Prior knowledge:
Blueprint: H1 4-25, H2 29-34, E1 36-44, E2 49-52, H3 54-65, E3 68-83, E4 86-99, E5 104-118, E6 121-135, H4 158-171, H5 185-197, E7 201-205, H6 208-218, E8 224-227, H7 231-236, H8 238-244, E9 249-250, H9 251-256, H10 264-272, E10 276-279, E11 283-285, E12 290-294, H11 300-306, E13 309-314, E14 319-320, H12 323-346, E15 354-358, E16 367-372
Amino acid sequence: MNDFQEIADRVEIEALRGEFTDAAMMRDRARLAALFTPDGVLRMPNIPVEFVGREEIRTGGERLQAQWDFFVQNSHPGTIRLDGDKATGRTYMQEIARVLDGRSGLNFAVYHDSYQRTPEGWKFAERVYEVRYVDTTPLRGSAPGLDAQSHGSGEAWDAGLASEAAEADASATGAADDFSAPASAERLDRAIAALRANGFTAELLDDAAAARARVKELIPEGAGVFTGASETLRLSGIAQDIEEGDRYQAIRPHVLKMDRATEFDQIRRLVAGPDVFVASVAAVTETGSLVIASGSGSQLPASAGGAAKAIWIVGAQKVVPDLSTALRRVEGHALPLENARAQAVYGQPSAVNRLLVLNAEPRPGRGTVLLLREAIGF
């Protein structure tokens, strides 16, 4: 092999693959997404997950990695086959990880790659992740330091544990609670039917991207919109769409600039009765109830009936059989995760000081539940 251009191409593609692993380990989702062509595709059939385009790759990766305590990925060079401005290849992966609910393990996988030469250099046109081996024996080690979570990734290793969790959920709903696993198709259908019977408008959507598009259709331009503090809204990009654009009158950015001591009464009125309230919930039961937990209670009036319209975006892992299970999910799963987030962001713990249960929607058309087939948020 004495062709200089071929050597240069191989070196650049190898650097591209190394950059991917580094961006994943450093949680630099924007840099990772930029390694793909604008219409590049990241596929992980074992989950199953498919992200098309840089924006989906960035936001989808954030949703996945939010589940992880720590993640370590090692990549090993595979083949590269050049064909002009295109190339194909394989990268071999060894990964260890632990998710926030305590599950952990070891994973071996292969990335099947397609590359494209662009004016910016070689980019991924497609990466397809194939799991070859999963060992879910609990890891005995730990990530050192209080801020270890900031170095996790959770981008690729999701396939092993996520697919295992999905199988467990499908096989038996009476087993030990696994509040991070997406509910089966049958349970999602039961929840949708029950919500509709209880007066809610309920829609079953494939993923957060579909919910993001649907929210734009549901909210009229110029409406006053209050967004609840929610990992689901943040990871899906819905919060960004509402709060950073000029399509709506976004209430949250406005009230955050107000003085809570001197303008509290005005803040209270703004958040209690918006045109539209958009948020998530802690749990939705298969009997058609929504369960919402809060530390301050500031978001509850809008959900309970203060908002002219309310939209709740709910990940598939939040579906539970009944109210008692919903309360276990709030205390045993959602609260510890929210507590860790609050400590990191605000420097203080969270608490379930107020709990709201919506058993029905008496005003037809007011409350809409967008239930997803994928897991997202707490």
